[in-house]
UniProtKB/TrEMBL annotation:
PANTHER family: CALCIUM-BINDING PROTEIN 39-RELATED, PROTEIN MO25. One of its GO terms (molecular function) is protein serine/threonine kinase activator activity. It comes from the Eukaryota. This is Uncharacterized protein. It comes from Ceratopteris richardii. Pfam families: Mo25. Belongs to the Mo25 family. InterPro entries: ARM-like, ARM-type_fold, Mo25. One of its GO terms (biological process) is intracellular signal transduction.
Length: 236
């Protein structure tokens, strides 16, 4: 394994970057000293993938390389491993991961939205992101990734109907203000972004939803009450 990770070599191709990152993330199990080199390699590769996707002050992203990354990501379980290991990554690597997620979801290869289609076939990854709100380290990054998902009606439909959706009504009352506020922002996006999807959901789950929402309207937390009322008016 050591020779795979650490031998000096030419810069990795996009295909090699995705494979090496996925392999390193999969091999990384916990924040213990023996895993530190594996984590370092994974985070270095994530930074390289982000640079390939968005460029930097000196170089613009290469459309051909972006297409290669997108196709390789969608052939692999890269996104699943990325979400699973998100809470274990460093601050910079979590930030890179959220940016990678956002860029990948918006990419098209021809007329195909490959990463969106991948998520539509692996919807449990959205549940894993919702659960990441329980990690004080990964919560805000997971929130950013979920709000990116909220751009797409198929993903919103799944999230609204998933049992994990109920967790937002707990998250918005967490004592950690940043996490509570971020989770409310995500909840608001899910409830206001796609009117037809939300209307269908409310028609089928009216009693359950307003039972949950009523908790927020009568919360002991003034900010929660105020934001809940504001969200209702926005939804009208």
């Amino acid at each position: 394994m050591a020779s795979f990770f650490f031998k000096p070599a030419r810069p990795k191709t996009p295909l090699e970057l995705v494979k090496a990152t996925r392999y390193a993330l999969f091999a990384f199990e916990s924040k213990v000293p023996e895993d530190s080199k594996v984590l370092e390699e994974a985070e270095k590769n994530l930074a390289a993938i982000k640079q390939a996707l968005v460029g930097d002050v000196e170089t613009d992203p290469n459309p051909e390389q972006i297409a290669q990354i997108v196709l390789e990501v969608c052939k692999d379980d890269f996104l699943e491993v990325l979400v699973q290991k998100l809470p274990m990554l460093s601050w910079d690597a979590r930030k890179d991961s959220a940016q990678i997620w956002s860029v990948l979801l918006r990419q098209k290869i021809g007329s195909s939205e490959c990463c969106l289609e991948y998520l539509e076939n692996h919807l449990h990854l959205l549940d894993l992101l919702v659960i990441c709100y329980q990690s004080k380290d990964a919560a805000l990054n997971a929130g950013s990734m979920l709000r990116e998902c909220a751009r797409y009606p198929t993903l919103v439909k799944y999230l609204l109907e998933s049992s994990s959706f109920d967790l937002f009504f707990d998250y918005v009352e967490l004592p950690n203000f940043d996490i509570a506020s971020d989770s409310f922002s995500t909840l608001k996006e899910l409830l206001t972004r796609h009117e037809a999807v939300v209307s269908e959901y409310l028609s089928a789950h009216y009693v359950k939803f307003f039972g949950l929402y009523e908790r927020l309207l009568y919360s002991k937390n003034y900010v929660t009450r105020r934001l809940s009322l504001k969200c209702l008016f926005v939804s009208e």
